[in-house]
Amino acid sequence: MTNYENTRVWLSSNERVVATLRNTSALAELQGKYRPEQLAVLPLDVTNTAQIDETFKFIETTFHRLDVVVNNAGYGLSGEIEGTPDAEARKQIEVLFWGPVNITKKRMFRDVNPAGLGGRVLNVSSTGGYAANMMLAFYSAGKFALEGFTEAFNREMPPEWNIKAIVIQPGGFPTNWRGSGMTVLPLHPAYDENSPSHQLRRMTKNYSPIGDVNKPAKAIIRVADTEDFRTLTCQSLNPHAPPKRNMPLTRRAARLALDQLCIYLQPILYELLAL
């Protein structure tokens, strides 16, 4: 999902939106189409706690309430584990994990909204937060951590507060995630052309995901309006994945199972490519 498409879909549903991003000029077109009381665009780096405080202060003084928070900031860091500098790995975790954590810890749902109104925190994870893959170790680590945090957060919330956090696990969509949203590190010299990571680099060099970028934003709106969430427990087709992971009871369950099957078959595919 992009900030532009996500914001546009929310606005088309007649919601009031505070859109935050590092480069506010990306939403200049939308700003010209909507009144300030319906769309506010603010600069925000999720690793900057002072900016987070300023954003929530603006929301409180301008709109006096907050119903839904969507934590969607992120980027990809691709490279072999031993070829990833500590600074790059820590930066990845700061954005994917600590940014959403510091935003979620703000107390507007409980302390500013009317009692019992509550709110929803939608933490955008990834299929990489369900099953890790090579070259994206620290990306998956950040998403796994975010999902664990979300689960613990929900267990801590008293029911009468009506505050719930939800994990969203989108698949691949044609956004700039694989372009400007991806940092690709050089191949580590220890990995030759027959190594799994080198094969993956070759396989995905010209990969272009398909899908409608509007659909995940529309799905998020439906989720935000859902009072309860049914889950099922299943054993992944990937024998190395942790058992009994919860997943939404939707068509995405079948899609995720197929994703796991693809991961399971990857070593076989590498062998075929080497023939």
TrEMBL record:
GO terms for molecular function: oxidoreductase activity. Keywords: Oxidoreductase. InterPro entries: NAD(P)-bd_dom_sf (IPR036291), SDR_fam (IPR002347), SDR_oxidoreductase (IPR051911). Belongs to the short-chain dehydrogenases/reductases (SDR) family. This is NAD(P)-binding protein.
